[in-house]
Structures are given as structure tokens and as C-alpha cells.
Amino acid sequence: MDGVTKKQYREALEVAHRHALSWLDSLPDRPIRPDLDVDGVLARLERGLPEDGSEPRDVVEELVAASEPGLMAMGSPRFYGFVIGGAYPAAVAADWLVAAWDQNTGSRQPTPATAAVEEVAGGWLLDLLGLPAESGVGFVTGGTTANLACLVAARDAVLRRAGADPAAGLQQAPSIRFLAGDAVHTSMQLAGRIAGLGLPRTVGADDQGRIDVAGLERALAEGTGPTIVALQAGDVHSGAFDDFAAAVEVSHRAGAWVHVDGAFGLWAAASPRLKHLVAGLADADSWATDAHKTLNVPYDCGVAIVRDEAAMTASLGAHAAYLPAVASVPDPYDRVPELSRRARGVPVWAALRSLGRQGVVRLVDGLADAAAALAAGFQAVPGLEVLNDVPFTQVCLATRDDATTAALGEWLRDEGTVWASSSTWRGRTVVRFAVSNHGTDSEAVRRTIDAVTRGAAALGIGG
């Protein structure tokens, strides 16, 4: 096939549209687990590259036939694994348009429409989350990359404060202290490694994963020089939030840069009922979140936010003679570690425009309410125990012993009504329910509790 016609675009997109709607319609009731594993899907795919091409509509049909049995129903309101949200209709539709428009949203000059939409979305995010209006906002691939972008800006800023030139490289720079609580997330650890900071030194945490502020203060007092402190909004197991007011104060007193990993928990700041969980958070220096988690937009949408936009652009900005630029106005690629990228902030704009401020409040409060309802329902089942305090959206469930808890997790995932992650927390095996989907309503909660109750009975738990 050499030429491409309008008819081929139309036919391929019509096939994709039909299958996409069929998939979305199936989510409330289909089993969440995939029917095929990777090897099963590979057996359905042509492994050698064909010599001749195929009609676009046929390619899409082939892709769906091979892939759908291996798809996890991650958009189900009863999917609780990995802190993954669903996707709102306006955000999905906007994401389709982003692909069709095919705008490389790196520069404001050649792509004014998508750059403008992203700038508005960034401003709305700062407003919703109560963060400084002058902050720089960059749309990146996910939480790890958002943490990375912020840590790179932090690294360079603390080196400049120490009189070093970040452009000379870390080999010529003074050592940077990188501190975090014991429950620091793996994405922060990975971002620190990529940024050249190494793994953070941990300073202690309480039984819910909140950073030990006294331990942090002692660690800060042990030395001087450039320092970065990582805090978190929402522990991945307990949902607990660090004491930002105290931790930021002692960190700033020691001259440290404070970064907040708020992959899902940063959104508590949007809720009048829950914003007490993030008191003092806005005094930090940078923040990272994932819009595909709590905000429920499609994948590939992390958000990096840095209070000092000039520090952000100094570290991440790109400069070349062929790159168009407007003097004194940062381009999108000045706030992310990419030159070429899709307009991933457009679905964020669509979700926020669709929901409005009060819709976001209802979303965040609804997720927290669903988690609380799950915890209460689980506690009523003999032999089950909820191990965490459930301040936000995470619920960690355990039984009489680790082997039985692991078996319950396997039973649930095999049965298919519910998918929750198994993990280890505070030395015990747990089944972790992360409530992230806007569709997790009272009926989804009821069906989840029913599935867990049936699983407990099948395994003789509480009998």
C-alpha cells in the first residue's frame, strides 16, 4: 500500500470507534482479569513482519481480535490495583482529538492552540490545588517523570545556591543530600537515581508511613550544603499524608528544597473537606502528580509543578537556532524533559472543563467516601482486618496469616469481580484496594464487599 486516502482514515477510525464503544460498554460487568496471558496474545499475532501491507480497517480489526482477550478491565469501577483511575468521556474524546490533530506541543509558536489549552489547564490546576499562581507547570508522561523533572530543577537550584554551576555536571559539584521518609515511593527512588542523586537517605516514619519530622530535623542538623527533602501526599498503602507544615518548616530553616510526591494524594487539596490533610503543602518548592490517577484522564499525563518557574526552565529548557521562541515567555518544552510530545495537557483541560470546580470536589470526596465504605464493609466480615487508618483512598486488608491473605488476593483476581493488588506492608501480606475510579459508587462498593465476603467464605476465613 503506497497511497493513503480519506476513505482509509474514515474506515479505520470507524472500526476503532465501534470497538472502543463496545469495550467501554462492557466495563461495568465484564470480568476484570484478562482471559489470555502474554503468551496467549502472542500466539494470536503474526510474529514475522509481513512482506505486504493490509488495509487500515483490517489492521484495526486484527489488532482488536488479538488483543481484547488479553486486556485488563482497568477502567472498571471495581479495579483497585496500582492506583489507576478511569477516564471521563470528555477526556477520552479530547485524547482522540490529540492523536488526530497530531500537534507536537513543544513550542507556543507552531502549535498555538494546544499550547494555549495547556496553559489554561495548568492555571486551573494551580487554582484547584491552592498552589502558587506563578508556578511553572509541565505535562509529562507520568508520576515518575514528574518527580524527575522536579528533582532536576531542585538539584540545579540547590547547586546554584551553593555557588556551583549545574552545567558543569555532578562530577564537579558538591555532594547533595537527598532525604525522605521510610515509606518513600519507588517512583521517587527511581527519579532520584536518574537525576544523579542516588537513593534518598531515609529518616524514619510512623506506623502509617508519615515522615518522622524529628528524624528529619536530626538528619538536617548533621551536615550542611545543598539538600533536597522529598515528602509525600498519600502513602501508597495507607493513604497517609506527611505533616507538611512541620516538615517544610524544618527543611526550609536548614536551607533545603522541599519536593512533594503527590501522585494521587495531591488532589485532596481540591476538597474543602479533605484539605486539612495537606495543610502546609503549598509552602513546598515543587510538586508532582498524575492526572490519570485521581483526575481520571487517559494514561500518559503526569504533572510537574515548580514554584520558581525560572529555576524550572533553567534546568529543563532547550535552546537551539532552529527552535522557535518568544523572548521572555517559556515554551512548553522549557518545563519538561522532552522536545517532542503529544498535547497531553488537553485531556486535563477537558476533564476540568467537564467537571468544574464542584465536580472535582465531588470526585475527590466520592473516592474517599468509597474507600471508607469499603473499609467498614470489610471490617464487618469475620476474620478480616483493615490495617490502615483510611484517611483518603487506600485500604489494606489482611486475614489471620500471610498465606491466607495471599490466597484471598489470588481468589479475588481469579474470580474476576474485583481486582486488587497484593503487597507487603508493615511486615504483613495485604490485599490493597486503591479507590481511584469515578465510577466506584455505592453499587460497586456493594459488589466488592460481596466478592470479598464470598472469597473469605470459600477460604474458610473466620469460620
UniProtKB/TrEMBL annotation:
GO terms for molecular function: transaminase activity. Keywords: Aminotransferase, Decarboxylase, Lyase, Pyridoxal phosphate, Transferase. It holds the Pfam family Pyridoxal_deC. SUPFAM superfamilies: PLP-dependent transferases. It comes from the Bacteria. Its cofactor is pyridoxal 5'-phosphate. PANTHER family: GROUP II PYRIDOXAL-5-PHOSPHATE DECARBOXYLASE (PTHR11999), MIP05841P (PTHR11999:SF70). Belongs to the group II decarboxylase family. This is Aminotransferase class V-fold PLP-dependent enzyme. It comes from Microbacterium psychrotolerans. The lineage of its organism: Bacteria, Bacillati, Actinomycetota, Actinomycetes, Micrococcales.
